[in-house]
Amino acid sequence: MEKRALILFAHGARADSWKAPFERLRDLTQRRMPEVRVTLAFLELMEPRLQPQVTSLVATGVTDITVVPVFLGQGAHVLRDLPLMVDELRVIHPKVAIRVAGAVGEDPGVLKAMTDYCIAALNS
């Protein structure tokens, strides 16, 4: 049976408190999908990084991984750095399916939710 995982991939920061919203997002997502392992990984400055996180998941039998860039847009990290990292991971783990979603901030539903929040802030 195929074991799936979802990795929420964020930039990372020096301040440990920066991680809290991503941890909440991970936990909320995990509650909605208990059959899928939901984890975090970071590009830099925080742990775990993407490669060790994928290796850890594969060691537990995961064979299908989706990486969701929790970025507002498709900047250099999402367009250049992440594809290179994923290409390396596909070489290291050739029997694992690894997909990458678009940046979360470019999804129409996410943009609508952000717009609703901004309008509510103006009217509060």
UniProtKB/TrEMBL annotation:
It comes from the Bacteria. Gene3D superfamilies: 3.40.50.1400. InterPro entries: CbiX-like, Sirohydro_Cobaltochel/CbiX. Keywords: Lyase, Metal-binding. PANTHER family: SIROHYDROCHLORIN FERROCHELATASE, CHLOROPLASTIC. This is CbiX/SirB N-terminal domain-containing protein. It comes from Massilia agrisoli. The lineage of its organism: Bacteria, Pseudomonadati, Pseudomonadota, Betaproteobacteria, Burkholderiales.
